């Protein structure tokens, strides 16, 4: 277990049995969506830890409380995801959109539900061994990290991070590392295209499958079908090349001085992945056969 490797279980503030209970409950509330499921949560958590290990060389004195918060935030970041995006929830007048006032609806639900579970029963309360002040710190860090996985906040997050990095290149000197940890979890969440191509392809197929399902739901209830969810319009290689160019590659490059080992590895895979998608695009591939319009 990742928490074991960081010395966060036996001998620290966590009760192993309570943690296992909590994580099993969290996993049970991940729905069997094509993409936003328990496997994606595990993948993002593992990636977050790889990034965390990479920037240990640059960032001094990362506390156990921060490590714990990052790992748990990554594990719960898509808890209870319904397989549709925020626009769908808002446009369909879903109860979650009403509760969260149309603002980062999915992300607000994920982190709220995580803390609801902790408070449902002592057997899930993984924060019981922390002081009140420590609980506040953990809650603040987890909330901010999960909320900024909303892709609508991507460009503002990247802009703020780059500005702070330009002003103070040594992140160890940052008096508040919240922005650093928000970027870490956000990058972990969008990083799967920088896996080896056979893995990147698998994740892309899963996310496109989920988009197509959303488009079918939009059509069924009389909503305009979102272009990126329209089976007749989606071109998977083109969509992935666009996502890499617009979102992922600039984020990796922005993080290159903070987590150089991770970024070097990710960019090497990414170049091969770009070649793979370009080849499929040139061959005229748009979607896997099972996702094409019937």
Structural key phrases:
mainly alpha, 294 residues, globular, single chain, 0% strand
What would a concise description of this structure say?
The chain is 62% helix and 0% strand. The chain is an all-alpha fold.
Task: Summarize the topology.
Blueprint: H1 2-5, H2 16-28, H3 38-54, H4 64-76, H5 86-91, H6 95-99, H7 105-120, H8 132-147, H9 154-167, H10 178-190, H11 197-220, H12 236-254, H13 260-282
Helix pairs in contact: 3-4, 3-10, 4-8, 7-8, 8-10, 9-10, 12-13
What report would you give on this structure?
By secondary structure, the chain is mainly alpha-helical. The relative contact order is 0.12. It has helices at about 1-5, 15-30, 40-55, 65-75, 85-90, 95-100, 105-120, 130-145, 155-165, 180-190, 195-220, 235-255, 260-280. About 60% of the residues lie in helices and about 0% in strands. Helix 3 (about 40-55) runs antiparallel to helix 4 (about 65-75), helix 7 runs antiparallel to helix 8 and helix 8 (about 130-145) crosses helix 10 (about 180-190). It starts with a helix and ends in a 12-residue tail after the last helix. The chain is built from 13 helices and no strands.
């Amino acid at each position: 277990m990742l928490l074991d490797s960081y010395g966060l279980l036996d001998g620290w503030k966590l009760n192993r049995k309570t943690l296992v209970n909590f994580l099993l409950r969290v996993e049970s509330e991940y729905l069997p969506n094509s993409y936003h499921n328990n496997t994606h949560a595990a993948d993002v958590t593992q990636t977050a830890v790889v990034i965390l290990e990479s920037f240990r060389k640059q960032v001094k004195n990362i506390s156990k409380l921060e490590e714990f918060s990052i790992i748990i935030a990554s594990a719960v970041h898509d808890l209870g995801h319904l397989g549709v995006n925020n626009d769908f929830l808002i446009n369909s007048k879903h109860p979650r959109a009403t509760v969260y006032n149309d603002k980062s609806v999915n992300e607000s639900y994920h982190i709220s539900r995580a803390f609801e579970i902790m408070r449902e029963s002592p057997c899930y309360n993984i924060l019981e061994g922390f002081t009140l002040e420590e609980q506040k710190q953990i809650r603040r860090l987890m909330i901010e990290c999960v909320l900024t996985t909303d892709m609508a906040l991507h460009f503002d997050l990247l802009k703020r991070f780059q500005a702070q990095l330009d002003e103070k290149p040594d992140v160890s000197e940052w008096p508040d590392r919240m922005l650093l940890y928000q970027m870490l979890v956000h990058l972990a969440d969008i990083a799967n295209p920088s896996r080896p191509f056979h893995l990147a392809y698998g994740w892309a197929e899963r996310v496109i499958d989920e988009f197509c399902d959303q488009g079918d739901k939009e059509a069924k209830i009389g909503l305009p079908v979102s272009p990126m969810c329209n089976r007749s319009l989606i071109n998977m290689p083109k969509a992935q090349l666009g996502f890499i160019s617009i979102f992922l590659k600039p984020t990796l490059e922005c993080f290159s001085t903070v987590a150089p080992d991770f970024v070097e590895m990710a960019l090497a895979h990414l170049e091969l992945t770009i070649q793979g998608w370009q080849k499929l695009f040139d061959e005229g591939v748009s979607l896997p056969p099972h996702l094409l319009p019937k």
